[in-house]
Structure formats: structure tokens, C-alpha cells
Write a structure and sequence with these properties.
The protein is an alpha/beta fold. It has one domain: TIM Barrel. 34% of the residues lie in helices and 19% in strands. It is built from 8 helices and 8 strands. Strands 1-8-7-6-5-4-3-2 form an 8-stranded parallel beta sheet. Helix 2 runs parallel beside helix 3. The model has no long low-confidence stretch (mean pLDDT 98). The chain binds D-xylitol-5-phosphate and zinc ion.
């Protein structure tokens, strides 16, 4: 299977967002990665529901929404209404993770769980067969443009083993510091989907950069 590419709009030009959305629409990218930050779970605030709704009006690919917020259950329905196709919550932000996953599924969305760099893959043992995607953070969430944490490769391998052992069907997506170098090694370790923000939108030719990632 070819790797799924999910450009993160956090690094897009918000004064001309339409142009960047159209670039992604016409590129080899598979999804739009939307980073929602609440200034509590992570030390930064990004954008919220009204912006997601507007993006959804012109985006022609699934919205891969990454919630970096506490108590995400409160917003599951609202993100569905705003256009989310995949809704990913943080393991560290959910007391009743299984209930949250059920809630996401009951609204007809794919459910993802994200792990911070310090959270071991083993915490997913009892839930891996109930989810559609795991988003491994390869930086501490909150900001784009940070450098990649090398321990992520080993986590990808462990997660791939867990998925195999449990006979689960789960996408392994990686977020933070992805470029052609880290991306290649991640795919070799077993990643199926790559998020890339600054590497794509900071490039001279973002469309070509997406295609380079796609064809690693
Ligand atoms: C970080 C976000 C990422 C971010 C990645 O908290 O979850 O999706 O946009 O940015 P880069 O690719 O620049 O590391
Ligand atoms: Zn993200």
C-alpha cells in the first residue's frame, strides 16, 4: 500500500488559505490534517470549528482532525457537523477512552488515538481492535516546525507488532518533524500515513514535495 500523506494546514498561509487548500486538492495528498489546540492540553491555541467548517466547503479530500484538547467528548458531534471524517483524540486527554471511541464511531467517523512521545504503545493493548488509526507524535504536540524525536522509529515497530499480534486493522500515522529523511525511515519501520506541515508548506514547490513524500 502506498503511504497516505496528510499535509498539516497549521503551516499553511492563513491569509490565503484557499490557495493552499486548492494546492492540496490538486496534489497527490490523501487527507487534510487539521490541528485543533485548546491552550490547555497543549501550550498553544490554533483554530477552531468555524475555520474547519470553512475548510470543509472547499476541501475535496477527507478531513483528518487531530484534537489536542482536554475532554474531547464535548466536541465530537460538533466536529462531525463541521466536516471531520477522521477524529483523533489524545490518549492522555481521555479518562474513558473506550466511551470516546464509541462516541466518535456512533457519529459515523473513523476514530484515531494519538500518543504523546512519552506514552508507551502498550497502553493501546486493550483498545487496538476498536480503533481505526493511531497517531504517534514524533514531537511534543503544540507547535509545527520542531525536530523529530528519534525514539519514534522503535515505537512504530512496537505498534506494528501489536497490531499484527491482535490481528487489528489500524493505520499507523506519524506527526511531527516529517521530511524525506525521517519519512523514509518511518515507512521502513511500518508507518502507513505521514503528516507534514512545515516541510510541505515551507517548500519552494509544495505540490512536488507532497509527491516526493508520496513516492518515498
Ligand atoms: C503539532 C501538530 C502537527 C504539526 C506538524 O502539534 O500536531 O500536526 O502541524 O508540523 P511539522 O510537520 O512542521 O512538524
Ligand atoms: Zn497534528
Amino acid at each position: 500500500m502506498q503511504t497516505l500523506i496528510s499535509p498539516s494546514l497549521l503551516a499553511a498561509d492563513f491569509t490565503n488559505l484557499k490557495a493552499d487548500i486548492e494546492m492540496v486538492n490538486n496534489s497527490q495528498a490523501d487527507w487534510f490534517h487539521l490541528d485543533i489546540m485548546d491552550g490547555v492540553f497543549v501550550p498553544n491555541i490554533s483554530y477552531g470549528l468555524p475555520v474547519v467548517e470553512q475548510i470543509n466547503k472547499i476541501a475535496k479530500k477527507p478531513l483528518d482532525v487531530h484534537l489536542m484538547i482536554i475532554d474531547p467528548d464535548r466536541y465530537v458531534e460538533a466536529f462531525k457537523k463541521a466536516g471531520a471524517d477522521i477524529l483523533t483524540v489524545h490518549y492522555e486527554a481521555c479518562t474513558h477512552l473506550h466511551r470516546t471511541i464509541q462516541n466518535i464511531h456512533s457519529h459515523g467517523m473513523k476514530a484515531g488515538v494519538s500518543l504523546n512521545p512519552h506514552t508507551p504503545v502498550s497502553v493501546l493493548e486493550e483498545i487496538i481492535t476498536d480503533i481505526d488509526l493511531v497517531l504517534l507524535m514524533s514531537v511534543n504536540p503544540g507547535f509545527g516546525g520542531q525536530s523529530f524525536i528519534e525514539n519514534t522509529y522503535a515505537k512504530v515497530e512496537k505498534l506494528a507488532e501489536l497490531i499484527k499480534e491482535k490481528n487489528a486493522s489500524v493505520v499507523i500515522e506519524i506527526d511531527g518533524g516529517v521530511n524525506l529523511g525521517t519519512g523514509k525511515k518511518l515507512i521502513e519501520a511500518g508507518a502507513n500515513a505521514l503528516v507534514a506541515g512545515s516541510f510541505v508548506f515551507g517548500a519552494n514547490d509544495p505540490d512536488q514535495t507532497i509527491s516526493d513524500l508520496k513516492n518515498l
